[in-house]
Amino acid sequence: MTQQELAHEPPNAKFVVAAEFGCLYEKGAERAAASLGVSEPKMSGYISSKGGYAWFRQPLTLIMLRSKGAGSTEITRQQHGSAAVLGQGEDMLAYLKSNPCVVDPQRPE
Predict the structure, then answer these.
(1) Could you give phi then psi for residue 86, rounded to 5 degrees?
(2) Is-contact 65 93, C-beta < 8 A?
(3) Is the pLDDT of residue 98 over 90?
(4) Based on the number of CB atoms within 10 Å of its own CB, is 95 exposed (0-12), middle (13-18) or buried (19 or more)?
(5) 20 to 30 Å CA-CA from 36: which of 42, 88, 89, 106?
(6) Which CATH number describes the domain made up of 3-97?
(7) Which class for 65: exposed (0-12), middle (13-18), buried (19 or more C-beta within 10 A)?
């Protein structure tokens, strides 16, 4: 499916994270790069700092990050039904939802 086709699929996940979209994208990109060799197709990504959005994509899954201002980001996942059955993108969604941009005082970066 093309990205445009995926963008027309109804979202099957949608939530807001209290973090800047640029930080979430950066952390997500690091996670995607570290996932070489796993069973799911590797994610590609793109960020538009001026546009206030970013995305991660697998062949049948699109995860969009949109800046909502004031340090919050809306995340949506749109995907083909077969990808939903396989749980494509679940790991990335869970990772972004956990807000990897929050610094743990016990483990500063």
Answers:
(1) -80, -10
(2) no
(3) yes
(4) middle
(5) 106
(6) 3.30.310
(7) buried
Q: How far apart are CA 105 and CA 5, in angstroms?
A: 42
Over the chain, what HEC string results?
A: CCHHHHHCCCEEEEEEECCCHHHHHHHHHHHHHHCCCCCCCCCEEEEECCCCEEEEEECCEEEEEEEEECCEEEEEEEECHHHHHHCCCHHHHHHHHCCCCCCCCCCCC
pTM over 0.85: yes
What is the average pLDDT across 12-29?
Answer: 96
70: number of Cβ within 10 Å: 7
- DSSP class of residue 43 equals P
